[in-house]
Every structure is written in structure tokens, then in C-alpha cells.
Amino acid sequence: MATFAVRIFKRYASFGVTGSTAALLSLGLIATPALAKVSQAEADKLKSELTPVGAERAANSAGTIPKWEGGLKTAPPCYKGRGTRYCDPFPSDKPLFTITKANLATYKGQLTEGQKALFAKFGDSYKMNVYPTRRTVGFPDFVYEATTKNALNAELTNGGESLNGAVLGIPFPIPKTGNEPIWNHKLRYRGVGVDRWNNQAAVTTSGDFNLVKIHEQVKFLYDTRGITPEQLDNVGIYFMQVVTAPPRLAGQITLVHETMDQVKEPRRAWQYNPGQRRLRRAPNVGYDNPGTGADGLRTNDQTDTFNGATDRYTWKLVGKKEMYIPYNAYVVHSDKYKFKDIIRKGHINQDLPRYELHRVWVVESNIKPGTTHIYRKRVFYVDEDSWQIAAVDIYDARQTLWRVQESHLIGIYDLLGSGPVLETVYDLQSGRYLAQAMNNEDPETSEKNFEVNFFDPANVAKQASK
User: Fold this and answer.
1) What is the pTM of this model?
2) Residue 170 φ/ψ, nearest 5 degrees
3) For position 243, what pLDDT does the model report?
4) Mean pLDDT of 130-146
5) 3-state secondary structure string, the chain?
6) Is 35 among the domain residues?
7) For the segment 56-96, what is each residue's pLDDT rounded down to a tens digit?
8) In which domain, by residue range, is 153 found?
9) What is the model's pLDDT at position 442?
10) pLDDT band at residue 188, thresholds of 50, 70 and 90?
11) Degrees (nearest 5) of the Cα angle 315, 33, 286?
């Protein structure tokens, strides 16, 4: 015990914390301050000037971002019912204009550094078709009610790694610190669970790619109606991923129990290798370890744009900004297009994505002293209506822009909510990129209420070995 305390004392001293303060920290006698919780007066804004999840209700002064009217609550005539493809509710919409390298200067104030870098790298082949802004994202009333409660009760402790007093709704609809929009993204409402295909393609500089087919089953325990924070038993999400192709990867399974308080207990993870026929604990599933089948183009914490612990970074809430981001991506999600129609040399087929002007929260993260990650800095752009991270600028150890992420979302009009239907990770240095979260050639994502024991390691091991 004494040796452990000395090690911790020395660690704090190495960060410039010395004397009695380091001693108290090493013994856990100084509590880190709790973050968040807003006053009743601030929470009341969720029923007036703010939407029930914290976005601005009003249109912007130019009228280019419309007033929020509750989201898209009615399925369009083209939709054939639960379990079928989500079709485009706005087939008659035409681009307002197209951003190209030639007119980039006119719009650069509403673009991320990463987006501007893509124009610089790919010249005349890269463009962004900008459409009328449609604020299609809304959530069920019970999510709104829970969000109001969370605004009054939710808090972060242990340096932002321990979430307390929140369940079901957005934890921090009126964010005060940089950690909070990231937690909102991680726990945004997506139904009780999903059964989906998350296919990915690592694309070479010539435009060739190998498709990795991934079947995922997820239970969002945090989103269970009537559950209390205590009943979560420190687990917010259960996740299982099975690779079905190519043959060299087929049969690999990753199982994750995503803990709410990662100081109390880090993420629980297991992996099954069909060659070994054993499910083993996998503490390396997280942070900057390579993602499954991604050919080194993404890290584990880039799944769903960002996931997992935030403890290796400091987080700064820069503020809110109007920016052009991928949105209402029903066309690029259409089953009329094959993967080969979407994937092109250098970047995806930019005739298919839809960009719109939306307000986003800008969050900057920088690597903490004494920790490691291949990404020294990341800048996140978080959509105010959905709390989904829409884009990320990623910097290497030299503070050079390295990679660019985008997440193309759709509004889920039959269940209410939103979800990504295509995610990209562009490597500016190698010229390669990763396209993931695609299911154009597979069944549509469906909501499914899994039992918790479905994700029990013993059950997964038993099913895998059959």
C-alpha cells in the first residue's frame, strides 16, 4: 500500500503537483469537483427558447436555418413500413448551390478545417451540394421528460469520467464544459436496441477496396423506459459485433459492456477468435488500438465517430457555430446504390451526400500530459438537434491535420431519433480512406429489445462455438 501511494505521489509530482496537495491527491482525500446540473430557471428554457434537448428553437437571423417544429414526425408516402428502407422525404429538393474549390472562399467560414483540406487535396473532383436545411430530428416525449430531469440532476465527477444522476434522456442539454456534449453524443437516444449491418471499406489510393461485412447487435440499457440510474448497474450499452466476411476475418466476435463510470470500472470487453475457439478478455478494445478490419484507418474510439473513455484528453467547449454538415442522407443510404456506386478514388461519390447549414457545438480535445494516443488533438462538431458528432478534425503529434471524419445522418421518422448511415475517415497523408456504417446492400437497421443475458460472455461463447 505504501509503495502504491509513493508511485501515485511521484506521478502527480511529475505533472507539477507537489507537496501536501500531491500527498492528499495520492490518498484520494481531495475530491474532484462535480460538473454540470443547471438551475430550475435554466432548465425551464427547455420549454421555451430551447428545444426539449437543448437546441435553439428559433430560426437564425438570416433565415437559412429554420425554426425547429418538432422534427419529422410523420413517415413520407414512399416509406413501406417498419423494417423497410428509410426513403427520402424530400425528393423534390434541389441543391441551393454547390461548393467547389473555385468558390471555396465564399463559404470557408462555415466549413471545418478538415473539409477545407479535402477541397485542397482533391481539387476539382471534390464538391459539396448544399440543400435547404431541414430540422428533421425529434425524439419521443418520454425522452424530453427525462432530459429535463437530467438537466437538474446529472453531473460528472472524477474528471468527467463518472456520470451520475442521468438516465434515458440527453444528460446535459445545456452544456457548460467540453466533456458534456461528448457524453450527449455517446448516450443520445437510439431506441432500446438495434440489429444492424455496419459494413466498411478500406479504400486504397487507386479507389480499390475490400469490403468487411459486420453484423452488430446493441442494447441501449440507458434508454430503457422506467429504469433508474441505480438499476443500470454501471452499464449503459451492451454491444456485440460479428464479422461475416471476408473469409480470413469471418467468425471474429467482439463483445463490449460499456460502463457508465469508467473510473469505477473500465469498459468490459471480450474477443472471440474462431481459430482458437475461445472468448477472451480484451482490454485493448478501446482508445487508439486499431479498429476491426479497418486497415489501420481508424482507432477503436472512432467507432460511431467517438466512443469510450474521455480520460486521455482535456476538453474545451469552444462554443456554437453555423456550419455545413452532412444531413438527411437518405439518398446516399438508398438501396438503389451499391457500395461500388458510393466509393470512388480519393473520396466517396460527392454527387450523393446532402449538406445543410446547421448549428453545431464545437469541442476541442487535447492529449493530457502523461497519457498517450496517436491523435494529439481533435476538434468535434456536434449537431445541436441530434447531439450526433457530425464531423471531426484530427491532428497528429506534430499538430498537423491528419485525418478528417464525417458522419452522414438521417432522421428516423417511424421511431423518432436519428442515426448514421455512412461514416468516413479520410487520411490526408496517405490518400486512403475508410467508409463505414453502410448497409445499402443489406437489410435495413431495425429496433430490437434484446435481453441483457443475450450479451452474457458465457452465452456468446456458447453460441460462437456451435
Assistant:
1) 0.92
2) -65, 130
3) 97
4) 98
5) CHHHHHHHHHHHHHCCCCHHHHHHHHCCCCCCCCECCCCHHHHHHHHCCECCCCCECCCCCCCCCCCCCCCCCCCCCCCCCCCCCCCCCCCCCCCCEEECCCCHHHHHHHCCHHHHHHHHHHHHHCCEEECCCCCCCCCCHHHHHHHHHHHHHCEEEHHHCEEECCCCCCCCCCCCCCHHHHHHHHCCCCCCEEEEECEEEEECCCCCEEEEEEEEEEECHHHCCCCCCHHHCCEEEEEEEEEEECCCCCCCEEEEEEECECCCCCCEEEEEECCCCEEEECCCCCCCCECCCCCCCCEHHHCCCCCCCCCCEEEEEEEEEEEEEECCCCCCCCCCCCHHHHECCCCECCCCCCEEEEEEEEEEEEECCCCCCCCCEEEEEEECCCCCEEEEEEECCCCCEEEEEEEEEEECCCCCCEEEEEEEEEECCCCCEEEEEECCCCCCCEECCCCHHHHCHHHHHHHHCC
6) no
7) 999 999 999 999 999 998 999 999 998 899 999 999 999 99
8) 40-464
9) 97
10) very high
11) 45
Structural contact between residues 392 and 378, judged by C-beta atoms closer than 8 angstroms: yes
Q: In this model, does residue 435 exceed pLDDT 70?
A: yes
Same domain membership, residue 87 and residue 147: yes
CATH number of the domain bearing residue 292: 2.50.20.10
Return the residue matching grid coordinates 462455438.
465
Work out the average pLDDT over 450-456: 96
d(CA 170, CA 168): 7
Domain count, the chain: 2
Q: For residue 466, what pLDDT is reported? A: 67
Q: Indicate if 76 and 10 belong to the same structural domain.
A: no
Cell 421511431 sits at which residue? 415
Say which residues have a Cβ less than 8 Å from residue 325's Cβ, sequence separation at least 6: 355, 356, 358, 360, 381, 383, 390, 391, 406
The CA-CA-CA angle for residues 440, 186, 459, to 5°, reads 75
Burial level of 123, CB count in 10 A (0-12/13-18/19+)?
exposed
Listed residue (220, 262, 232) closest to 166, CA to CA? 232
Amino acid type, 17: V
In single-letter form, the type of residue at position 377 comes to K
Identify whether 212 is part of a domain. Answer: yes
Q: Is residue 141 part of a domain?
A: yes
Q: In terms of DSSP bridges, do strands 401-411 and 418-427 run parallel, antiparallel, or are they unpaired?
A: antiparallel
